[in-house]
Design goal:
Largest sheet: 6 strands, antiparallel
Protein name: Helix-turn-helix transcriptional regulator
CATH topology of the largest domain: Jelly Rolls
Radius of gyration: 19 Å
Number of helices: 10
Domain HTH araC/xylS-type: 156-258
Strand order of the largest sheet: 1-2-9-4-7-10
Shape: globular
Strand content: 15-25%
Keywords: DNA-binding, Transcription, Transcription regulation
CATH class of the largest domain: Mainly Beta
Order of helices and strands: EEEEEEEEEHEHHHHHHHHHEE
Structural class: alpha+beta
Helix content: 40-55%
Oligomer: single chain
Length: 271
């Protein structure tokens, strides 16, 4: 199995964190499962269906799917080999690239063709008939650039500011203070944030807090787990563990012992 993590071109760097590619033509990966966790970001996955089929639970997924924010861990199963490209977006992408209210896709995914866009339908056809990973990424980049030009009117500087502040502080910011700084009522702020991000500000802040803890675990930059809990303002270690299980599906200790994570927030399990 071959895996690559590819940075976006400069003109997409405000929308795309990175592209990723997984390729394997061995039939013995038919029991493989993608494990994902809550990370505050939506994404897009293309799987060449002549090579393998993706399933969520027992539901077969389309060849190109757009997925929204996750509030919990999830798993996708593959039958066959990997010929997969993913796009890891920034939190605002569903609104600013696709013109969607992000909360419509929270904990869900959609066949890209169902966006009722000729451009989306053409993208899947082109990806299916293109065999070089770099050519596919170039095709996706052209598609995204056209989408951004069409949906630029949905960009909201106040929401981008709110996202940046929450992420910069690892979720350690008063949502009330942030709302007052933006001069928005509680109701307006939450409504706009859910439309642009797909989550409430408070939940997005909790996920940012959790992700900061995961980064310390990955880097082994701590002496004991309680240090991480207190550094990131959890009431105690038990609260930290409960939150970690909620978003990752396993405890911090279990996560620390695993090594199958290919990139942040994404791993493959095989039987």
């Amino acid at each position: 199995m071959q895996f690559r993590n590819i940075p976006p071109p400069d003109y997409l760097k405000d929308y795309v964190r990175h592209f990723w590619v997984i390729e394997s033509h061995h039939t013995d990966v038919s029991a493989a499962t993608f494990r994902t966790i809550a990370d505050g970001c939506p994404g897009l996955i293309f799987q060449h269906q002549d090579q393998g089929i993706l399933f969520q639970n027992d539901k077969q997924l389309a060849g190109a799917i757009l997925y929204g924010q996750a509030t919990r861990h999830a798993a996708l199963r593959i039958r066959g080999g990997f010929d997969t490209i993913g796009v890891y977006f920034y939190p605002h992408a569903l609104k600013t690239i696709f013109g969607l209210n992000a909360d419509e896709l929270t904990d869900d995914c959609i066949d890209l063709n169902l966006l009722e866009s000729t451009r989306s339908f053409q993208l899947q056809n082109r990806l299916t008939n293109t065999f070089s990973s770099q050519s596919r990424i170039d095709t996706i980049c052209s598609f995204l650039l056209a989408q951004i030009a069409e949906n630029d009117r949905y960009t909201d500087p106040s929401m981008q500011y709110a996202i940046d502040r929450i992420r910069q502080t690892n979720g350690h910011i008063s949502v009330k203070a942030l709302r007052e700084e933006l001069q928005l009522s509680e109701r307006s702020f939450e409504r706009k944030f859910k439309q642009h991000i797909g989550l409430t500000p408070k939940l997005f802040a909790r996920i940012a807090q959790f992700q900061a803890c995961m980064q310390l675990l990955r880097q082994s930059n701590y002496n004991k787990l309680s240090d991480i809990a207190f550094e990131h303002d959890y009431a105690d270690q038990s609260h930290f563990i409960r939150s970690f299980r909620e978003f990752a599906g396993l405890s911090p200790f279990q996560f620390r012992k695993r090594s199958e994570e290919l990139i942040e927030n994404f791993s493959i399990l095989t039987k």
